[in-house]
Amino acid sequence: MTTGESSGLEVRVLGPLEAVVHGRPVDLGGPQxxxxxxxxxxxxxxxxxxxxxVDELWGPLPPRDAHRTVRTYVSRLRAALRHVTGGxxxxxxxxxxxxxxxxxxxxxxxxxxxxxxVTSGQQALGAQPRLAFERLTAALGLWRGDAFAEFGHLPGIxxxxxxxxxxxxxxxxxxxESALALGLxxxxxxxxxxxxxxxxxxxLLWGQLMIALYRLGRQADALxxxxxxxxxxxxxxxxxxxxxxxxxxxxxxxxxxxxxxAGRSSLQGTAVIGSTAVVGSTVLQ
Length: 285
Description:
The chain is mostly helical. The chain has eleven helices and eight strands. Helix 2 (about 30-40) packs across helix 4 (about 65-85), helix 5 runs antiparallel to helix 6 and helix 6 packs antiparallel against helix 7.
């Protein structure tokens, strides 16, 4: 049995920070102690030095007693955990020179569970679209808001949040592909019409929307989507649609039979998946 299992502690960072023990919330105190826990939860099972915590919490001008203050925050967090668990919280928030470690199985931190589910779902995508859809749906269901929502002012945490948000979008694209492979075209189209407005530089989303509409018998709308995407890319980014997106357009024009059947990768036969077309800072992949 791991420490996470024995303590019952689960840390949730895919939204506002939460710590729960067997479903009971832990009062984590103010923003600074919460920041310490967030830093440790970002790398469960690894030691974060007191110096690194000081740098993250206060930047280049920490107070003179910053190291002692960090130790006080850890003591408060342990007390809060002890109040809920009744056990020895020092076995979860462990002192390991030169700092501290959150000693839980990564599976008890939602961000790590999310990443495992995404990896598993993406691996299943080609041969097992139903399994991919289920795992990617489960992964995305862990989100309750922005990752590490209240810690955007902490540079290290903000970088981790950006990584998770990028993976969230990639997981969304993969889940939509699995939905199209399962013939869930109407569901995918409804979701994609929102997503292309939120992420207009993600050409894969535009391509998926075009295919979903075409498979719903809406060829004119699918071609209209391409015109909208092309105009946006030209006017706002000064680039033409990638060869991958243009290939989807061409396949729709010639009524390519491979676009129609469920039970296969929705973009099979094009270069959309795995291409390296770049729009601004976005890689189509």
